[in-house]
Write a structure and sequence with these properties.
heterodimer; A: 479 residues; alpha/beta; Aconitase, domain 3; B: 200 residues; Aconitase, domain 4; 7 strands; binds iron/sulfur cluster
């Protein structure tokens, strides 16, 4: 698929939520042909913001709408000992820089211990900050998560974080819109994670470049907000900078009563507005792809890109069965992973099991994993740990006794953060260890060891791997 | 802040491989920093360790190179600007590749580093030419949309929008964006949620 990096990318989509939200947020057209787009919600964290604040200072600029930026700390926080100063000096320095910048620019900051700290893509929805019809930006590629609410949300680089701080706008080219329709009920043992791994596997890791993905159809309509977040979260893994689901009653029920959700009269006004920005029934798309939910199996990645997935009971593809263009990266993956073409992934011994991240670190994810862990024991020699996505997730999970189920089964129960999703904190793979991971990226070296290996799967499948010690079909635990 | 980028000339460095993601360009442990300054030393750290001196970025003949020639989907993965920053701090001033990931490309535009695309065959030839003659000067000409290296000339592509931004020196959008404060406030005022979703 050819990359299209034109400004503006010519689009034909009409009447979609993406088109409507884009138009409503357009400030003007820049000399480059790009749109100057207003950003309704800007989220920042400790990794990609310090340099942006420094650039602001260099140029003598101030934050234009400090009340539209919200900060938290997630990537570098230790998940065991969170006492300050952090043991890692560099992490402590980043933390202090964020605290200083937020104080100086009057930006609301959810720090450790506030009761609301957590992975930025987990806490903004929890607080009701993320709402339908908004544009959301954050210096993090998984900002696509917020699209679950019918927001247009995308990851940006640090120079763009600077732009949003200084102007609350971004210079952007409009994307094309691909409707990805999935219809029907998912089979038992098949989760939102499997749906998105299946989509990425089918459309490719570059298939979404230049597109926003609209997830539509009865399968997504039946999903909870947390499941929709899991799907939208990994849009970027399919190359799409943003992905969204049209808002509906499920969205409104989730939002109602949350801290930053509209209240009273404004709630009624909000619902009317949210309904108006839904994609029209006769909306036009640049592309439409249709899946049947019944065809989606529990899916696991075997390689070094999120597109290298197989059904749990399907052999790892042979080079001959792959498209010409996918063979080189497959060859690299066989070698790096130490796996053979034609081999079954099922039964592969696992060293580390990680349940967490902005993909699958929410309450419903922990519940599904706990169902599998309950009354069982983590296999000998396996290190298994659960990292709640936020302080709130942790609190709510503990209120339900999920922590006790995990601890009794031999899992470690940690403090919230990104943890081993990208291993910027002390949680890391060692050497060639292989992990079953509920996170979103299986790139070489992603989990903290240059030779470490990652198998992506649903949290329930990670729990199944933990208790058996090898890659396991979670359906064996369901009856 | 205007600085025009019409042509970049310098020695080349080939980096063969598809889907080289930002985790490989700069592993996450090097993101523990509050400035981009020291990143150049760690670019491709794990790949370089692994190849023990045989990685292009370690090979003596490519030291001081300024034009990086890559293959497909370069820079996929995380949005970290640390990745292009690390490449730039190492000394790279332009990239030529089969294709680039979208956020990576956008980050490069914001930094004034052009990324142009060329067909696979051109990339292959260029990588070979540079490998066999590392001293040769590669010229990336954004106005003519071509790459030249001794007698080798081939077309490269960058879409008109970003290309115009480089040539006219308007790739740094920040100043333009900030100058529209009034229109920004007017747009905000029309959005119903702006009043009910303020964090104040
Ligand atoms: S959990 Fe992982 S993907 Fe999500 S924000 Fe943190 S590091 Fe990024």
């Amino acid at each position: 698929m050819e990359m299209d990096l034109d400004f503006p990318i010519r689009t034909m989509s009409k009447g979609t939520l993406f088109d409507k939200v884009w138009d409503l947020h357009t400030v003007g057209t820049l000399p480059s042909g790009q749109t100057q787009l207003f950003i309704g919600l800007h989220l920042i964290h400790e990794v990609t913001s310090p340099q942006a604040f420094a650039m602001l200072r260099d140029r003598g600029l101030k934050v234009l709408f400090p009340e539209r930026t919200v900060a938290t700390v997630d990537h570098i926080v230790p998940t065991t000992n969170q006492a300050r100063p952090f043991v890692d000096d560099l992490a402590e320095e980043m933390m202090q820089e964020l605290e200083k910048n937020c104080a100086e620019h009057h930006i609301r900051f959810y720090n450790i211990g506030s009761g609301q700290q957590g992975i930025v893509h987990v806490i903004a929805p929890e607080l009701g900050l993320t709402q339908p019809g908004m544009t959301v930006a954050c210096g993090d590629s998984h900002t696509s998560t917020h699209g679950a609410f019918g927001a247009i949300a995308f990851g940006i680089g640090t120079s763009q974080v600077r732009d949003v701080l200084a102007s609350q706008t971004l210079a952007l080219a409009k994307l094309k819109v691909r409707r990805i329709e999935v219809n029907g009920s998912l089979k038992p043992g098949v989760y939102a994670k499997d749906v998105i791994l299946h989509i990425i596997r089918t459309l490719g890791v570059k298939g979404g470049v230049g597109y926003a993905y609209e997830y539509a159809g009865t399968t997504f309509e039946q999903m909870s907000m947390e499941e929709r977040m899991t799907v939208c979260n990994m849009s970027i893994e399919g190359g799409a900078r943003c992905g969204y689901v049209n808002p509906d009653q499920v969205t409104y029920d989730y939002l109602k009563g949350r801290e930053f959700a509209p209240k009273g009269e404004e709630w009624e006004k909000a619902i009317a507005w949210w309904e108006s920005i839904r994609s029209d029934v006769d909306a036009e798309y640049d592309d439409i792809v249709v899946f049947d939910a019944a065809d989606i199996p529990p899916t696991v990645t075997w390689g070094i890109t999120p597109g290298q997935g197989v059904a749990i009971n399907e052999p790892i593809p042979t080079p001959e069965s792959l498209k010409e263009e996918d063979r080189q990266i497959a060859a690299e993956a066989y070698a790096y992973m130490g796996l053979q073409p034609g081999q079954l992934l099922q039964g592969t011994p696992i060293d580390v099991c990680f349940i967490g991240s902005c993909t699958n670190g929410r309450l419903s994810d922990l519940r599904e994993a706990a169902k599998v862990a309950k009354g069982r024991r983590v296999a000998a020699g396996v290190k298994a740990f659960v990292v709640p996505g936020s302080e709130r997730v942790k609190r709510e999970a503990e209120a339900e006794g999920l922590d006790q189920i995990f601890i009794a089964a031999g899992f470690e129960w940690r403090e919230p953060g990104c943890s081993m999703c990208l291993a910027m904190n002390p949680d890391k793979l060692e050497g060639r260890q292989i992990s079953a991971s509920a996170s979103n990226r299986n790139f070489k070296g992603r989990q903290g060891s240059a030779t470490g290996r990652t198998l992506l799967m649903s949290p329930a499948m990670v729990a199944a791997a933990a208790v058996t010690g090898h890659v396991t079909d979670v359906r064996e635990f369901m009856n | 802040m205007v600085s025009e980028v019409k042509q970049v000339s310098g020695r080349g460095i080939p980096l063969v491989g598809d889907d080289i993601d930002t985790d490989r360009i700069i592993p996450a442990r090097y993101l523990r920093c509050v400035t981009f300054d020291g990143l150049g030393a760690h670019v491709f750290a794990d790949d370089r360790d692994h190849l023990q001196g045989q990685h292009a970025f370690d090979q003596p003949q490519f030291q001081g190179a300024e034009i990086l020639v890559v293959n497909r989907n370069f820079g996929c993965g995380s949005s970290r600007e640390h990745a292009p920053q690390a490449i730039a701090k190492w000394g790279i001033k332009a990239l030529i590749g089969e294709s680039f990931a979208e956020i990576f490309f956008g980050n490069c535009v914001a930094m004034g580093i052009p990324c142009v695309t060329a067909v696979a065959e051109t990339i292959r030839q260029l990588q070979e030419k540079i490998a066999s003659n590392p001293q040769a000067v590669v010229t990336l000409d954004l106005e003519q949309q071509e790459v030249r290296c001794n007698d080798f000339v081939a077309p490269v592509k960058m879409k008109d929008g970003p290309r115009h931004m480089f040539i006219s020196g308007t790739w740094d959008a920040c100043g333009q964006l900030v100058s529209h404060a009034e229109q920004i406030r007017a747009t905000a005022a029309k959005l119903p949620y702006v009043s009910w979703s303020s964090t104040r």
